[in-house]
Amino acid sequence: MIEVAIIGPTASGKSDTALDIACKKGAYILSLDSLSLYKEVDIASAKPSKKELAAVLHFGIDIIYPNEPFNAAMFMDEYERAKEAALRDKKHLVIVGGSSFYLKSMIDGLSDMPSISAKSRGRALDIVKNDIAAAYEELKNIDPQFAQNVKENDSYRIGRGLEIFFEFGIPASKIFAEAPKKKIDSDLKIYEITVDKEELRAKIRQRTAKMIEVGIFEEAEYLLGRYGRDVKPMGSIGLKEALSYLDGEISKEQCAELICIHTWQLAKRQTTFNKAQIKADFKGDKDTVASSIAALF
């Protein structure tokens, strides 16, 4: 079985490339996109269509509801399920997505953590929501080693450090240091799609226009009514701007412009992270990457 990962900035054509390779070469796909994990978040996540999902078996899509928590370990679990299925069915595996942080975590290794009870998670969440500054100070008191790598406004990691301590009575840094790590142990080849800046800007504009055309406002309104505005996906690009439009704060044209701006900013952050943190085996434009991967099979 051959395993490859395709990374690159948002709107660079990663998913289309992965789907084409999977169809032609007989592979399953593991989506490495933190928004595609969520059920009912379809337009904002630019999730594959039902037809595309039916054509190739995908993992990492529609795993949890918008009001449920997630972490990097979920991607590791999905990777193990995807690899097991690929080995069983004599398929290859293509990992694709913009959330390179999770790919790096899976390569470096993730601690196999026991589950956290709803009581401990709720206690930590209440503290963070009530006063994030006080929550950060509490984290520094109970686990200074963990806190030194956490920004004072990072509500997710502050809450994570607190809930682990509440659950086990042991600092998270100690648990992570002692817990056995799971990681990708195969000969994974990483391919990075590079795109000219102006071409990428044009692709982002096209994606934004399509997002609005197919119903991002309706999706945002539905999610707002069902889950409220405090769930994590509602702060994602596309949904947060759509909420501002629905609130009457901006026009539809301003909403589209903000989505383009924020998507471009995300693309730059992704490119910077990939350059600094991910060692790609091959870099090139979409077609060159596709040809290089196809030559492996």
Structure write-up:
It is globular and about 55 Å long. The chain is an alpha/beta fold. The longest helix has 26 residues, at 252-277. It folds into three domains: 3-111 and 182-195 and 277-294, Rossmann fold (3-Layer(aba) Sandwich); 118-178, Histone, subunit A, CATH 1.10.20; 197-269, Orthogonal Bundle (Helix Hairpins). α6 (132-142) crosses α8. It is built from 14 helices and eight strands. Strands 3-2-4-1-7-8 form a six-stranded parallel sheet, sandwiched between helices. It has a two-stranded antiparallel ribbon with strand order 5-6.
Question: What's the SSE blueprint?
Answer:
Elements: E1 3-7, H1 14-25, E2 27-31, H2 50-55, E3 58-59, H3 72-88, E4 92-96, H4 100-108, E5 110-111, H5 118-130, H6 132-142, H7 144-147, H8 155-168, H9 172-178, E6 181-182, E7 189-193, H10 197-214, H11 216-227, H12 239-246, H13 252-277, E8 282-284, H14 286-294
Parallel strand pairs: 1-4, 1-7, 2-3, 2-4, 7-8
Antiparallel strand pairs: 5-6
